[in-house]
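Journal club prep, notes for RB
We'll compare a predicted complex against what the paper describes. Inputs for the S-adenosylmethionine case:
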Amino acid sequence: MTPDDMPAMTVAECSVEALVDRYQMVRRRTETLAAPLSPEDQSAQSMPDASPTKWHRGHTTWFFETFLLTPFLPGYTVYDPAFGYLFNSYYEAVGPRQPRPQRGLLTRPSAQAVGAYRAHVDAAMVRLLEGPLTPEIRERLELGLNHEEQHQELILMDILHLFAQSPLSPAYQPGAAPARPDPGPQRFHRFAGGLVEIGACEAGFAFDNERPRHKTYVAPFRLSDRLVTNGEWLAFIEAGGYGRADLWLSEGWATVNAEGWEAPGYWRRDEDGAWTTMTLRGRHPVDPNAPVVHVSYYEAAAYAAWSGRRLPTEAEWEAAATASGMTALRQLYGGAWQWTASAYGAYPGFKPGPGALGEYNGKFMVSQMTLRGGCEATPPGHTRSTYRNFFHPGSRWMFGGVRLADDDRLSEVKPGDSFLDEVVKGLSASPKTLPAKYFYDAEGSRLFEAICELPEYYLTRTETALLRQIAPEIAARIPDGAALVEFGSGASTKTRIVLDAAPQIAVYAPIDISPTALDEAATSLRKAYPNLAVAPLVDDFTKAMTLPEGAKGHTPVGFFPGSTIGNFAPDEAEALLRQARTLLGEGSLFIVGADVAKDPAVLIPAYDDAQGVTAAFNRNVLVHINRELGGTFDPAAFTHKAVWNAQESRIEMHLESTRDQIVMVGDYGFRFAAGETIHTENSYKYPAEAFEQIAKRAGWTVAQRWVSENPTFAVYALTA
Ligand SMILES: C[S@@+](CC[C@H](N)C(=O)[O-])C[C@H]1O[C@@H](n2cnc3c(N)ncnc32)[C@H](O)[C@@H]1O
């Protein structure tokens, strides 16, 4: 609990003097917030969701008058009977009201007249508080004060929205905010979950929606120790996050397109490309170290999807906030309201109270999402760990931000898990390495397909054209009823060239490490080739010891395009080819596509494209590790590098650490010095003769070699 989060002494415990003091302090704060605003500022309404400051001042006063003075102060008569219509917000039980979108039309009463109304009610409230106080009066007073604090935050949100519409970008509070220090990488803390208790207990003040306290089950999870920053959000924008339908919820995608969103609310890109944002201090450059604010739930969810994480549920947030003590989690209450993945609903056992005040929160429990925490506009001491804020998922004018969570998959990773073992081994080596096959989760497979479309990536275009040209010759070597066994099949695009030329193939048996790529390819091939049996196998082809089940009983023909063989060093490639020979059997045919050594000026751009797709593909291995193994990599803190190693005749991909940092993978910590790299992939470029030597050493005979025009790419027919 932060000092800000300590509940103030509740009204039920206060002496009369303390009660009057507290009442006057809260009421004065509202007037202090309104003080820098002119009467014109106070009357304008910038959108239906926002209200004029003058209205907030009137409404909070009406609340005390209606729910305390009228029922409980003997002899009190309402200040102005017309005000009930003007300042009732949404209480059906109290009567009709000015439509919310038209609060800005209330030029009367003036801001000054509202001040007089406030003074009248305040004087009457002091009389009430000095009289006998029943528990009900104390309870309503507490609610009224907390209600007014909520409107204090609304005043700031609404005035910011209003000022953001002005070409003058007025500052509510002049002066730039001090630049924030770099908050450092996000650290994901592990929480065991289990049966946890959330919600406010009976003692002390809480809004009705925070009760009853109840038990709920939470699976093991991890929560970031800080909020997502503007700098991280910029990386999302630059990666095309606002243009990728696959990251967005359907409603979110529709909203992005309808509203033309390209950045958080109030962000504007100047002609020189620099971003500014509207703040309570006026328009200022976006501070990369400050938490991102004014993002909708849709944006928060898209960002989480992009970063390979998710939003926390309410129960996770609250369990972590109460378990974390003072230090583990930063920015719990002051930085931004944090969107949760939980829809705003009633806790088990919740019942709205009787009468008009029962309308306070309960009737809004539909179609909104819950946010936790607090923000710079939240009055000090107002919020707490059980506090439930809620907004429609498209709203951006409140200070809504993002704290990421993910499933604690590490608790599911069993000892001996080969992903964990290989990653730990690779990162413990010097220089650090990671196996290239772990690029290929669903996102990695998608990015690889995008790479294949790049103008710089000549490999796919060249190999595809060559395969089309030689398909009849390949087909002539394939026996009737054969099973085409493909190694690292990905989207199985090149497969179709062989299948079209060789209808005698009875079975297609792709082996790939990526279940999603395999699933999608199998589904689309089954549709396109109804007579073909498709028998996919999710496996590491360097370890596969038996053919996919459906291929058994058919003559296997191996197919290994894409120059994936180039990802293996010569001795590994030899071992792999030998193993494939054992798998496919004596007398079998193996068609292998492999790139050929060429000018680095052609090679380098193929692995370091202008659009940064290969960079995203390279960094995705870190995202994959974060998700599956509980890693704490900050992908933005690693730069993509592609270098030609002439001595080894290979392109190397690396991820270079931009700073000194420590990264956790599960329970293992790895130190990175600034400039240190992880070697993530090799793509060997063999001269054709060199490749043939490797194949021969592995026991294959080179039956035929086809080489494309420049840029050269080779396909080999090997026979066992
Ligand atoms: C470079 S892509 C080639 C895809 C496709 N064959 C083509 O030519 O377009 C490599 C493919 O091999 C898969 N892959 C990489 N290493 C693997 C391994 N050790 N075991 C199984 N599949 C692997 C990846 O998931 C990916 O689909």
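Talking point for the session: The first helix runs from residue 16 to 34.
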